[in-house]
Task: inverse folding
C-alpha cells in the first residue's frame, strides 16, 4: 500500500516546534523546582540583581501601580535601545569585515554563558536537591560541558543532534536568568522586544535586515547563533541524496526536509549558466517546492511532478528541460532568483551577551527558510521560554494557555514564511498571542475553571 | 502527597492519551498539528465561555440549578465547536485531496480520516485533562492530601483524576463518532454524541444534590 500524504505533511513545522516545546518545558521545570517553596525565606527577599534590563528602575512589591508601570516602561525602553545599539555595532563590524573578531567573540561569549550562567543554575540545582558531589568533579564536568558546547556550535564535524542539544541548553540558561526579573518589567520587556523585532527585521533601515542583506550579498553565513531544524535521522522517508540520485529515482516524497544542499550548492554556483545542469536545478526547485509542507495552497508541483518523471530517464533529460523551460521560463527565472537569495540568506539572530550583570543580550531574531530546513534564531527560544516561565510562576493553567498561544503563533509565522520566502521576525505574533492569552486566562478563565473543578463539575 | 503520588494522579488522568499519542499520533506530524490546533480551539471556547459567565461567579453553593444552566451552556457551546471543527475539517479534506492529486499520491484513506478525527478528539481530551485536573494537582506534590467533602476516604485528587480520565475518553471517541456520523449522515450517531456529553456533565450535579448520602 502506498504511503498516504498524511505521512509527510508538516514535518518541517514539527521539526521546529519540538525543540521550542522542549526548551519551554525544561524552563518551566527549572522555574518550578528552583522557586523557593517558602515565599518569606531569605532567598526570595534577597535584593534583586541589577542587570541590563533593570538599569533604570528596580521594582519592589511595595510600589504603587503607576510607579511600577512607568518604571517598567522605562526599563523596557532602555533595554531595547541598548539592544539596538549593539546590533548596529554588529552590523558595522560585519560590514568592515571584522569577521575574525566576531567569531572569536561569539565563541568566547558562548563559553562564558555556558560556564557561568549554566554553572550557577547547576549550583542551585545541586543545592536544592542536595546532590552529593564535590567541587572538583563539578568544576571538571562544567568545564567539559562548556568546551564541548562551544565546539559543537562553532566547529564542523559534530553530529547535528549534539549541536541542537547545546542550542536548546543555551536557550534554557538565558531564559532561566531572564525569569529572575520582576514581573512588570518582564511583561513590558517582552512586548517591547516583539515590537523591536518587527521593526528591525522588516523596516528598511532595520539593523537585522541590513545584516541579512550583507550576509546574502557576500554569500556567507551570518555570524550568529541559529538553531537549524535539520532532522538528525530521517524517519522512514526516502533520504534525499544528491541531485543525480533524484534524477534516477524519479519519485520523490513531498515532504522531506533535508536537501543535502551541499553538493547542489557547489554545482549550482559553478554551473549556473550551464545548460546541462538545468535538469538538476529545476529538479531541485521542484523538490524545494515539494518541500514546503505547509503549502496546501498554490505551489503547482503538478508540473514539477511531471518534470520529475520525465527526467528520470537521463536520455530524455535534455528534452524535459527544454519542455519545462519553455513552459515555465518566467516562473523558473524568478524562482531561481528567489531561491538563490534563499539559499544564501541565513537567518537572523542572536548575539548572546555575556553572563556578567552588566552585559546585554542583544536579541535580534527572525526565521528563514533555506534549502537546508528552517532555521530559528536562538533569541526566539529565549523569549518564548521567558514568557512561559513567567506564566509558570502563576499557575499551570496559564502555562498551558501561553504554550498553546506561542506554538500557534509559531505555526502562523511558519506559514507566512512559506508564503513570503524571506527572513521574518518570529517574535511578534507569538508574543502578542502569548501575552493576550496569559491575561485572558488569568482574569477570566481561572475563577471559572477552578470553581467548577473543585466542585467536581466537569464537562 | 509526595512527588510519586502527584505523578501517579497525572498519569491516571493522562495515561491512555499518552500511549495513544506515542503509538498513533507521533508518527505523523500532521496529526500532531491537528492535535495542537484542536486543543487551541477548545481553549479559546473555554475562554469565551468563562468570559460570558464571569459576571455571575462565584455561584452560590447551596442551590443547584445555576450549575445546571452552567453545564448546559458549556456543553452546548462545545457541541457547537464540534460542528465548527467538522466544517473546517471538510474544507481541509478537500485541500488535502487536491494536494494529494497534485503530488500523485493516493487520496485520504478512511483510516487517515479517522486518524485525523482521533487526533482532534484527543486534543480536546488532553486540554480538558490539563485544565480541569492537572492544574489543580500542584498541591498534590507536597506533603499532604485533601479529601472530598462527602466521602472522606477518597482523596480529592484521585476523584478528579478518574473523572478526567473518563472525560478524556469521552472527548476522544465522541469526536470520532461525530465525524463518522456527519460524514455518513447518520442521525443516530450525530445525536448520540451531544447526549452523552450532556448526560455525563449533568450526572456530576447529582452528587451535589444528595448532601447526606455518601458517594463512596
Result:
Amino acid at each position: 500500500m502506498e504511503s498516504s500524504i498524511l505521512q509527510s505533511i508538516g514535518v518541517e513545522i514539527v521539526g521546529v516546534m519540538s525543540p521550542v516545546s522542549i526548551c519551554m518545558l525544561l524552563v518551566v521545570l527549572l522555574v518550578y523546582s528552583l522557586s523557593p517553596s517558602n515565599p518569606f525565606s531569605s532567598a526570595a527577599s534577597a535584593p534583586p540583581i541589577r542587570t541590563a534590563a533593570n538599569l533604570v528602575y528596580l521594582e519592589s512589591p511595595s510600589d504603587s501601580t503607576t510607579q511600577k508601570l512607568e518604571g517598567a516602561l522605562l526599563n523596557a525602553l532602555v533595554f531595547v535601545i541598548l539592544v539596538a545599539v549593539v546590533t548596529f555595532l554588529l552590523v558595522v563590524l560585519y560590514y568592515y569585515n571584522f569577521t575574525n573578531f566576531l567569531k572569536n567573540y561569539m565563541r568566547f561569549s558562548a563559553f562564558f554563558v555556558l560556564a557561568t550562567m549554566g554553572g550557577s543554575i547547576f549550583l542551585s540545582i545541586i543545592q536544592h536537591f542536595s546532590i552529593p558531589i564535590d567541587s572538583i568533579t563539578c568544576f571538571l564536568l562544567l568545564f567539559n560541558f562548556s568546551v564541548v558546547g562551544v565546539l559543537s556550535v562553532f566547529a564542523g564535524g559534530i553530529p547535528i543532534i549534539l549541536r541542537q542539544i547545546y542550542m536548546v541548553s543555551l536557550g534554557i540558561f538565558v531564559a532561566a536568568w531572564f525569569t529572575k526579573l520582576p514581573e512588570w518589567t518582564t511583561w513590558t520587556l517582552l512586548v517591547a522586544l516583539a515590537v523591536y523585532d518587527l521593526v528591525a527585521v522588516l523596516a528598511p533601515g532595520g539593523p537585522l535586515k541590513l545584516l541579512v542583506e550583507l550576509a546574502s550579498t557576500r554569500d556567507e553565513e551570518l555570524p550568529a547563533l541559529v538553531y537549524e531544524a535539520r532532522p538528525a535521522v530521517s524517519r522512514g522517508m526516502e533520504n534525499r541524496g544528491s541531485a543525480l540520485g533524484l534524477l534516477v529515482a524519479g519519485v520523490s516524497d513531498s515532504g522531506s526536509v533535508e536537501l543535502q544542499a551541499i553538493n547542489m550548492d557547489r554545482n549550482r554556483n559553478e554551473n549556473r549558466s550551464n545548460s546541462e545542469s538545468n535538469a538538476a536545478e529545476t529538479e531541485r526547485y521542484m523538490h524545494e517546492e515539494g518541500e514546503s509542507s505547509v503549502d496546501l495552497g498554490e505551489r503547482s508541483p503538478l508540473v514539477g511532478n511531471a518534470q520529475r518523471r520525465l527526467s528520470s530517464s537521463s536520455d530524455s533529460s535534455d528534452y524535459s528541460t527544454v519542455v519545462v523551460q519553455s513552459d515555465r521560463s518566467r516562473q523558473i527565472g524568478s524562482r531561481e532568483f528567489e531561491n538563490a537569495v534563499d539559499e544564501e540568506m541565513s537567518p537572523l539572530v542572536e548575539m548572546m551577551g555575556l553572563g556578567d550583570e552588566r552585559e546585554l543580550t542583544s536579541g535580534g531574531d527572525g526565521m528563514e527558510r533555506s534549502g537546508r530546513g528552517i532555521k530559528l534564531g536562538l533569541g526566539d527560544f529565549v523569549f518564548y521560554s521567558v514568557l512561559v516561565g513567567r506564566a509558570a510562576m502563576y499557575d499551570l493553567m496559564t502555562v498551558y494557555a501561553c504554550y498553546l498561544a506561542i506554538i500557534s503563533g509559531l505555526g502562523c509565522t511558519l506559514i507566512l514564511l512559506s508564503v513570503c520566502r524571506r527572513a521574518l521576525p518570529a517574535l511578534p505574533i507569538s508574543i502578542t498571542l502569548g501575552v493576550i492569552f496569559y491575561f485572558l486566562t488569568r482574569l477570566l478563565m481561572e475563577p471559572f475553571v477552578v470553581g467548577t473543578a473543585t466542585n467536581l463539575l466537569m464537562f | 502527597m509526595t512527588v510519586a503520588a502527584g505523578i501517579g494522579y497525572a498519569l491516571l488522568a493522562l495515561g491512555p492519551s499518552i500511549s495513544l499519542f506515542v503509538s498513533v499520533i507521533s508518527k505523523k506530524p500532521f496529526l500532531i498539528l491537528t492535535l495542537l490546533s484542536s486543543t487551541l480551539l477548545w481553549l479559546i471556547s473555554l475562554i469565551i465561555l468563562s468570559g460570558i459567565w464571569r459576571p455571575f461567579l462565584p455561584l452560590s453553593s447551596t442551590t443547584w440549578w445555576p450549575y445546571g444552566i452552567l453545564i448546559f451552556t458549556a456543553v452546548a457551546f462545545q457541541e457547537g465547536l464540534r460542528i465548527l471543527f467538522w466544517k473546517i475539517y471538510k474544507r481541509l479534506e478537500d485541500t488535502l485531496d487536491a494536494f494529494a492529486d497534485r503530488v500523485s499520491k493516493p487520496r485520504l484513506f478512511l483510516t487517515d480520516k479517522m486518524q485525523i478525527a482521533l487526533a482532534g478528539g484527543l486534543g480536546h481530551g488532553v486540554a480538558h485533562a490539563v485544565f480541569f485536573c492537572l492544574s489543580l494537582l500542584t498541591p498534590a506534590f507536597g506533603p499532604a492530601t485533601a479529601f472530598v467533602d462527602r466521602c472522606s476516604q477518597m482523596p480529592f485528587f484521585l476523584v478528579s483524576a478518574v473523572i478526567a480520565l473518563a472525560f478524556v475518553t469521552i472527548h476522544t471517541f465522541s469526536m470520532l463518532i461525530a465525524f463518522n456520523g456527519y460524514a455518513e449522515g447518520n442521525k443516530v450517531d450525530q445525536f448520540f454524541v451531544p447526549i452523552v456529553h450532556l448526560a455525563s456533565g449533568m450526572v456530576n450535579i447529582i452528587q451535589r444534590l444528595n448532601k447526606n448520602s455518601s458517594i463512596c
Summary: Residues 23 and 168 of chain A are 6 Å apart (CA to CA).
